[in-house]
Amino acid sequence: MLTRIDHIGIACLDLDTTVEFYRTTYGFEVYHSEINEEQGVREAMLRINGTDDGGATWIQLLEPIRDDSPVAKWLAKNGEGVHHIAFGTADVDGEAESIRGKGVRVLYDQPRRGSMDSRITFLHPKDCHGVLTELVTSAPNETAAEPEAH
Ligand code: CMX
Ligand code: CO
């Protein structure tokens, strides 16, 4: 079962400037930031709200660290904006297999490491009415985090 919107992924040209916009305009704080080499991004996770399945909903701000990364390619074509949506589930493996069985291309054979030690996979946007869609199972202790100092 997919039980929440885990995050909205937003591609940006300058992570620090974009984080500052979200803080000063909306009051959202960064709870976590990291570089994910495999995905080719520097990212910040802004916690928006907890959810009734025990998880949370986030804004994921993404700045590319390599010109050949998916986010860099997308930015070059579209400019800044909403890059993907992610649904949360307790069982990313089972959901991915079930959705694959419905004829939707799942991009990874096995889920990979995502933000905050989550496990993630992606569905091809061309099979999802133009929306790059991520499936996420969070690490158990994810929501215990406090905002980062700034
Ligand atoms: N949303 C909607 N459509 C998208 C898209 C996106 N984010 N990215 C690409 N597309 C569309 C393109 O517009 C293009 O459509 P047209 O053929 O009509 O022009 C088509 O998909 C192919 O796009 P492309 O630019 O040629 O890009 P690639 O095929 O090389 O890669 C994809 C597309 C989805 C396979 C690649 O972006 C990918 O592997 N994404 C998953 C990984 C990822 O995005 N990581 C960053 C986030 C990490 C995280 O969330 O933690
Ligand atoms: Co994401």
UniProtKB/TrEMBL annotation:
The gene is mce. Keywords: Isomerase, Metal-binding. GO terms for molecular function: metal ion binding; methylmalonyl-CoA epimerase activity. It comes from the Bacteria. It comes from Streptomyces sedi. The keyword Metal-binding applies. It is an enzyme of class 5 (isomerase). The keyword Isomerase applies. InterPro entries: Glyas_Bleomycin-R_OHBP_Dase, MeMalonyl-CoA_epimerase, MMCE/EMCE_epimerase, VOC_core. SUPFAM superfamilies: Glyoxalase/Bleomycin resistance protein/Dihydroxybiphenyl dioxygenase. PROSITE patterns: VOC. This is Methylmalonyl-CoA epimerase. One of its GO terms (biological process) is L-methylmalonyl-CoA metabolic process. Its EC number is 5.1.99.1. NCBIfam families: metmalonyl_epim (TIGR03081). Gene3D superfamilies: 2,3-Dihydroxybiphenyl 1,2-Dioxygenase, domain 1. Belongs to the methylmalonyl-CoA epimerase family.
